[in-house]
Amino acid sequence: MKYYIQFKRESLGFPELLGSRKTFLRMKREKYGYIYRTHLFGNRTVRVTGADNVKQILLGEHRLVSAQWPASVRAILGTETLSNVHGAQHKTKKKAILRAFSREALELYIPVIQEEVQAAWLALLPHSIEAGLNPTGRLLLWNLALCVQAEQGMDLQSLNIESLEQLKYTGCVIKETLRINPPVPGGFRVALKTFELNGYQIPKGWNVVYSICDTHDVAEIFPDKEDFQPERFLTDPCADSSRFQYIPFGGGSRMCIGKEFAKVLLKVFLVEVVTKCHWTLLNGPPTMKTGPTVYPEDNLPTKFTSYVHN
Ligand code: HEM
Predict the structure, then answer these.
(1) CA dist list (Å): 216 to 75, 149, 281
(2) Which protein family is named in the record (predicted)?
(3) 184 CB less than 6 Å from ligand 1?
(4) CATH for the stretch 14-306
C-alpha cells in the first residue's frame, strides 16, 4: 500500500512577487547598490547587504541600532520574549535561556527528538493524510539522497552528540541548504541615532533591515553560488574574512539562541528520514518561493512507502 503526504500551504497572495523574490532583490541591488532606502511594513527602512555592512549592524546592537521586529511580529511573540527585550534584560534572559541549549541539555534532547520523529512517521504511515513540516524540514527533504550516499557505513542506531558530530557530510548538506535558502531572510533593527554606514547616512528612528539572503547571494567565498555543493563546507573558510558572509543564524549579541538545537534537530530528522523511511518526491526537486519564509512552490508532495521500525 502507498501513503501520501501533502505539505499544505495557503496562498499568501501576490505569487508573482513571492516567486521571484531573489530576482527582484538582485534587480534592486543592481540599481541601488548594497545599501538603499525602501519602505517596509509602513516604515521608512534602509536595506543593508554584504558582509562588511551587515557586520556593522550586527555588532552595533545597543550602540547604533536596536533589534525591533515589525509590530505584527512583536504582537505575536509578546513583549517579554527574548527578541523583544533589550539591554541588561536581554543579556540576563539570554544567559539563562542558553542553559537550555548547552551541550549537556542537547544530549538529553536527542532521544526525545528521535522518538518524536519516529512517532510522527508512524502516525503518518497508516493513513493517507495531509501534513506539514517546517520550511527547513521541507527544504532538506529533497537533498537527502546525498546524505545516504555520503554517510554509508556509519552506525546510526544510537544517536548522541558525538555521533551527530561525525556526520560531517550531513552537516554540510544542512549548511548548504541554509546558504541557498536561509529560512530567516533577514533581521529588523531601528537606528538609535543618525550614523554613517559605508558612506550612507542612516537617519535616527529609521528601520534597518540586514539581509541574510542578499548577503549570501553576494558572498565572494561561495563560487558557483547557484549550485548546490555541500562539499564547499567540508573545509572551513579562513575565519575572519568570511565571518559575516554566511549568516543563516544572524550574528553578534542577537545571534540565534536555538542555533545548536536547530542543528541537532535537523540532523536527527535527516538520519531518521534517510535510514528508516522509503520515500520519493512526486514532482522531483521543487522550486522554492518566499513569503515570508522559504517554501516549495508545489508544497512538496511526497510518497512514503515504508518505515523500518527498530
Ligand atoms: C534553522 C533554524 C533557525 C534559523 C535559520 C534561525 C535564524 C535566526 C536568526 C537569523 C536570528 C537573528 C535575528 C536577528 O538578528 O534579529 C534568530 C534569532 C533567534 N532565534 Fe532562531 N533560527 C532557527 C531556529 C531557532 C530555534 C529552534 C529557536 C528556539 C528553540 C530559535 C530561537 C531564536 C530566538 C529566541 C532568537 C532571538 C535571539 C535574540 O534576540 O537574542 N531559533 N534566529
Answers:
(1) 29, 27, 27
(2) Belongs to the cytochrome P450 family.
(3) yes
(4) 1.10.630.10
